[in-house]
Amino acid sequence: MSVPKFWREIPHKYRLVGSRCRSCGAIYHPRRPICPRCGSRDMEDVKLSHRGRLLAFTVIRRAPSDMADLRPYVVGLIELEDGVKVLSQVVDCDPAELKPGLELEATLRRIRVHGPAGVIEYGYKFRPVIKWEAEAGEGQ
User: What pTM, to 2 d.p., does this model score?
Assistant: First the structure.
């Protein structure tokens, strides 16, 4: 990946951006130039929620070569608070403890290192929401 291309993509990778159709209001991730629902080209960028819940997941044990050092890793389908569904790696957890309905939050992490120049690509991944003891004791 070239450095200029990398810099152009930063806003969309770091901010969890989708697109909203100005004609029918549908929201999509990843961003789309044309609305699949109504065919409109009048799309705008929209910042998506950083919290959601796990709908389904799988554990990847045979990874592509550029992700071999992450094995095994989890990829999950997450429904964000605003209703948009995203596919993302789920981190900071034991795969055996994952279950549908688990609350997740976006976090910024290293995705990969590109080529001999060593350009490091960052992006969002999701992790379980940490419940602090003060929050856990509020309902008691």
Answer: 0.80
**3-state SS assignment for residue 27:** strand
Looking at 2.40.50, 2.40.128, 1.10.3290, 3.40.50, the CATH number of the domain 3-15+49-132 comes to: 2.40.50
**Three-state DSSP class for 31?**
coil
Dump pLDDT digits (tens) for 39-95. 999 999 999 999 999 999 999 998 787 777 778 899 999 999 999 999 999 999 999
Domain boundaries, the chain: 3-15+49-132
In 10 A of CB 102, how many CB atoms? 19
| Two tokens, residue 35 | 């609305």
Cα separation, 118 vs 1, whole angstroms: 10
